[in-house]
Amino acid sequence: MALLVWQDDLETGIEAVDNQHRRIVEMINHLHVNHKSLDRAAAGEVIDEMIDYTLSHFAFEEELMEESGYPFTAAHKRVHEIFTRRVAEYRLRFQAGEDVTEELKSMLSRWLFNHIRGDDKAYAETIKRHLHITDSGSAPKKGGFFARLKQLFFSS
Predict the structure, then answer these.
(1) Which CATH number goes with the domain that contains 121?
(2) Mind giving me the DSSP string for the chain?
(3) Domain membership flag for residue 5
(4) What's the confidence (pLDDT) of residue 145?
(5) Position 1 in a domain
(6) Is residue 129 in some structural domain?
(7) pTM
(8) Whole-angstrom Cα distance, residue 111 to residue 98?
(9) How much is the pLDDT for 51?
């Protein structure tokens, strides 16, 4: 499997979400590089970091959807829960000594791109309206909901 390349059709128009998605793509690519170098310990660290980061990303998205009044928030959360369980199984298999990196990379790349293009694009307009993001790219008001979320999820 080749390295993943970010594509314009993956953009939701919500900068923080798009940046998080790009970071997940970088992590999948990092897993690819570590697998090619046969560095099992490094691959394990990337898997753990990717899972932890993805869980915080899911929480960020879910908070955005709830606050924005997105009507399919519960269904989207359920998709996240199913995915989380699936990835946890890969982590357990890896920890048991099985080489799952190629299978995991393939599943992650397919799932991520399909999820962004479908499920995430579906909520984007609702959230952008709530955050007052226009097609011209204007940012939401300083100190508003978006600033609070960034503070909550991405401050030290």
Answers:
(1) 1.20.120.50
(2) -PPP---GGG--S-HHHHHHHHHHHHHHHHHHHHHHTT-HHHHHHHHHHHHHHHHHHHHHHHHHHHHHT-TTHHHHHHHHHHHHHHHHHHHHHHHTT---HHHHHHHHHHHHHHHIIIIIHHHHHHHHHHHT--TT-PPPPTTSHHHHHHHHHH--
(3) no
(4) 55
(5) no
(6) yes
(7) 0.80
(8) 21
(9) 87
Number of independent structural domains in the chain: 1
CA-nearest of 109, 112, 107, 115 to 91 is 107
Distance in angstroms (rounded) separating the CA atoms of residues 47 and 100: 10
Write the single-letter amino acid at 103. E
Residue 73 maps to a domain: yes
> Would you state the torsion angle of the CA atoms of residues 66, 72, 74, 75, taken in this order, to the nearest 10 degrees?
-150
Q: Which two tokens stand for residue 103?
A: 């299978």
More confident residue, 99 or 155: 99
Q: What's the pLDDT score for residue 140?
A: 46
Query: Domain containing 27: what range?
Result: 10-154
- Contacts for 135 with CB less than 8 Å, ≥ 6 apart: 13
What is the arithmetic mean of pLDDT over 122-136?
80
How far is Cα 52 from Cα 101, in angstroms, rounded to an integer?
17
